[in-house]
Design goal:
single chain; alpha/beta; Rossmann fold; 6-stranded parallel beta sheet; 13 helices; elongated
Length: 376
């Protein structure tokens, strides 16, 4: 993929508050720019991110805030039409209207980037998806999915996606790495409150804390109810900005990874936080889902827990073994899951689309030429 003009319409790149989209987009945009592409990021200006921006002016590419779909049409039609690649992300406000406009306007390759694939498919099934419709999916040249495995075939066969490709989350090696900080907690978890993840929080973190009052735990993220029963050995932090994630992970002996129910059912759905924690070489205790072993070797790179006693058994591992598990996980994600890996994969996917379009165009041209000869 040669130097290209790329436009991304995503949920947010300026604010990581309560979402995993911003850090993903930041890494991808940075690496695309570093590889010579001209990238513009269009973000809807909404009050909940406006008041919680931790990177109001990203130093890579061009970031533009817009106020409405009408403003997109009035000011950025030429930008979309002339781009070599236009990517629309999940959860973009008025995403269905924006998607149809993009597919009708763009002359280059179009892609839908689903950072929430199982949630999207569940919402499509019950008719509540506000940012994507079944009719819109076949219009995109590419469906880039945070979820791999059997979901990709489902997208193509059931929803008519032209090319569904796994496009997993990633991390920035410069931002996530081991750091010499004082260890404050034996186990921590960071994630926005989610009803389907809460049983894991209750069992694997709060439950373990109740059984082991001498050990220290931390729960970080917005949205947790004030009525949640928390013991004295649990610290609650309402938000950790992206700039503080590395220090937060490194201040834990172990970190906990929990997965939403939709993601567990789909499998093959690693989270941004999973790769970020691994990059910091902090050993991970995780719930289990199909496909996890394609990202980490269970028992060697990552530990699995399904009860408070499982958690405490892992916390009792000798320091030498604990450190080795973290280091192996870090080597794995450095080799496969950096933002640079994703930028290269995106280039390859776009090249595939272009090659197929060129082949189809050549075939049509030969067929039309043959028809003209036959009628002469």
């Amino acid at each position: 993929m040669i130097h290209s003009r790329i436009v991304i319409l995503g949920l947010s790149v300026t604010s990581s508050w309560g979402n995993g989209h911003a850090t993903t987009y930041r890494g991808l945009v940075r690496e695309l720019v570093r590889r010579g592409h001209d990238v513009t990021f269009l973000e809807r200006d909404v009050p909940w991110y406006a008041s919680n921006r931790d990177m109001s002016s990203p130093p890579w590419g061009t970031t533009i805030l817009y106020g409405s779909v009408q403003e997109l049409r009035d000011r950025y039609t030429k930008l979309i039409r002339e781009a070599d690649l236009v990517v629309l992300g999940s959860y973009v406000p008025d995403g269905i209207e924006v998607g149809h406009w993009v597919c009708s306007t763009a002359h280059g390759v179009t892609a839908f980037y689903d950072i929430d694939t199982p949630v999207t498919l569940a919402a499509l099934a019950n008719g509540t998806c506000a940012y994507l419709s079944s009719a819109l999916i076949p219009r995109f040249d590419l469906y880039l999915s945070f979820t791999g495995g059997p979901t990709l075939a489902r997208l193509e066969r059931h929803y008519g996606a032209r090319r569904a490709r796994a496009f997993y989350c990633s991390f920035d090696p410069a931002a996530y790495c081991p750091e010499a900080v004082d260890v404050q907690w034996d186990l921590g978890y960071m994630g926005t409150y989610c009803p389907t993840r809460q049983p894991g929080v209750e069992q694997l973190l709060l439950g373990a804390a109740r059984v082991a009052p001498s050990q220290r735990f931390v729960l970080a993220g917005p949205g947790y109810p004030d009525t949640m029963a928390v013991t004295d050995n649990v610290t609650v932090i309402h938000n950790v900005p992206a700039t503080g994630h590395r220090a937060f992970y490194n201040a834990q002996r172990f970190t906990l990874n929990l997965t939403r129910a939709d993601m567990i059912r789909a499998g093959y759905s690693p989270s941004v936080r999973l790769f970020e924690a691994a990059a910091c070489a902090v050993p991970i205790i995780s719930d289990y889902w199909d496909g996890l072993e394609t990202f980490f070797t269970i028992g060697t790179d990552i530990l699995i827990a399904s009860s408070p006693l499982d958690t405490l058994r892992h916390l009792a591992l000798p320091d030498e073994e604990r450190i080795s598990i973290g280091r192996r996980a870090r080597r794995r994600v450095l080799a496969e899951h950096t933002a640079e890996h994703r930028a290269i994969e995106l280039e390859q996917h776009v090249d595939e689309v272009r090659a197929n379009k060129a082949l189809a165009s050549s075939y049509r041209s030969r067929r039309e030429q043959g028809s003209r000869i036959a009628t002469q």
